[in-house]
């Protein structure tokens, strides 16, 4: 399965790769060299910590490169008055009248606890293409259903969103 990413997602991932290859990799190799110079490696905590840090950095680089290579680049534009990618939506839960802000994002920025949901999620599916004033039915994978009323729609972008760790 290919992750659906925006051009901004790709750019942010490439920026992180570049930073990790130039800044972090250099620092990791210097730390490893210093720790190795301390002698006996069998009981050298600094050596193992430096090696672990270097390996995590290399792993993250490979992960991001694979994400970019296998990504399906999607258009994040939508009609001004319709819920689409990168839009922030204020919704009211019809059962208890509580209000929440949700943002429709790609999988690499998703964080449901912070209100960042994907178009593939039950909430995202229900909201995509809808307008202010619409009441939508959300159906979860477990069969639970609830209604949301769209109160407000903001045409935001993804420039300030962070790419998730893995």
How much of the sequence is in beta strands?
15-25%
Average pLDDT across residues? 90
Can you tell me the overall shape? elongated
Query: What string gives the helices and strands in order?
Result: EHHEEEEHEE
Number of strands: 7
Q: Which value, in Å, is the CA radius of gyration? A: 21 Å
Major sheet:
5 strands, mixed
Strand order of the largest sheet: 5-4-3-7-6
Roughly what percent helix?
A: 25-40%
Termini Cα gap: 17 Å
Low-confidence stretches: none
Q: Layout of helices and strands, plus pairs?
A:
Layout: E1 4-5, H1 7-36, H2 45-70, E2 72-73, E3 88-93, E4 99-104, E5 116-117, H3 122-127, E6 135-139, E7 145-154
Parallel strand pairs: 1-2, 4-5
Antiparallel strand pairs: 3-4, 3-7, 6-7
Helix pairs in contact: 1-2
Write structural notes for this entry.
The chain has three helices and seven strands. The chain has 166 residues and is α/β, with parallel strands linked by helices. The strands form two sheets. A five-stranded mixed sheet has the order 5-4-3-7-6. Strand 6 and strand 7 form a beta hairpin. The model has no long low-confidence stretch (mean pLDDT 90).
Structural descriptors:
5-stranded mixed β-sheet, single chain, 20% strand, alpha/beta, elongated, 3 helices, two-stranded parallel ribbon, 166 residues
């Amino acid at each position: 399965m290919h992750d659906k990413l925006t051009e901004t997602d790709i750019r942010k991932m490439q920026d992180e790769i570049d930073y990790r290859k130039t800044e972090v990799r250099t620092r990791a190799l210097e730390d490893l060299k210093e720790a190795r110079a301390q002698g006996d490696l069998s009981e050298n905590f600094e050596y193992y910590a430096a090696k672990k840090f270097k390996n995590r950095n290399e792993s993250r680089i490979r992960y991001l490169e694979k994400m970019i290579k296998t990504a399906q680049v999607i258009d994040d534009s939508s009609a001004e008055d319709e819920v689409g990618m990168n839009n922030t939506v204020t919704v009211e839960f019809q059962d208890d009248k509580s209000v929440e802000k949700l943002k429709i994002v790609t999988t690499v920025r998703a964080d449901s606890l912070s209100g960042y949901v994907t178009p593939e999620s039950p909430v995202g599916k229900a909201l995509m293409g809808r307008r202010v004033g619409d009441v939508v039915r959300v159906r979860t994978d477990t069969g639970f259903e609830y209604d949301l009323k769209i109160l407000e729609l903001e045409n935001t972008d993804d420039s300030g969103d962070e790419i998730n760790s893995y």
